[in-house]
Design a protein that fits this description.
single chain; about 160 residues; alpha+beta; Ubiquitin-like (UB roll); DNA polymerase, domain 1; 2 domains; 5 strands; about 15% strand
Length: about 160
């Protein structure tokens, strides 16, 4: 079957099998920033935004994404043009091996798009499906708090790509 998805603001068309999950399609098509680890929706490494909402791409059938918009961490920002969250993760030491970071940044973006003044508990809840075995969670918590503060100071209200 053929599906059409807008990925990182670019219209794409893919041939997929009816039982194929979005993670496998994305990786096959070169979106290597979407990481796969557990294939059970437990680790958060494969988190993407589907119509602005965080989802585990390892549990989402590719066919369900037909006609929708998808954002990976690369659609949020890249090394040359990082956004406020990516900068905050680096500045707060919230990255080490980097495997879980794309999913964590995507989850943080979804939260900050809805609430630029989150409490620590709200951040922990929004990111509770993103497991990190290297940095621990305090640095990521500090990064999201820092990014939220910068957004409030900038008055932008949304975590847009810079």
């Amino acid at each position: 079957m053929t599906i059409k998805i807008v990925i990182n603001s670019v219209q794409r068309t893919f041939d997929v099998q009816p039982d194929e999950v979005l993670l496998d399609v994305l990786r096959r098509e070169g979106y290597l920033e979407v990481k796969g680890s557990c294939h059970a929706g437990d680790c958060g490494a494969c988190t993407i935004l589907l119509d602005g909402r965080p989802v585990a791409s390892c549990l989402t059938l590719a066919a369900k994404a037909d006609g929708h918009s998808l954002t990976t961490v690369r659609g949020i920002g890249d090394q040359a043009h990082p956004n406020v969250i990516q900068d905050a993760f680096v500045k707060n030491g919230a990255v080490q091996c980097g495997y879980c970071i794309p999913g964590a940044i995507v989850s943080a973006k979804a939260l900050l798009d809805e609430n630029i003044n989150p409490t620590e508990d709200e951040i922990r809840l929004a990111m509770d499906s993103n497991y990190c075995r290297c940095t621990g969670y305090e640095q990521q918590l500090e990064a999201v708090l820092s990014a939220a503060e910068q957004l409030r100071e900038d008055g932008t209200g949304k975590v847009s790509k810079k």
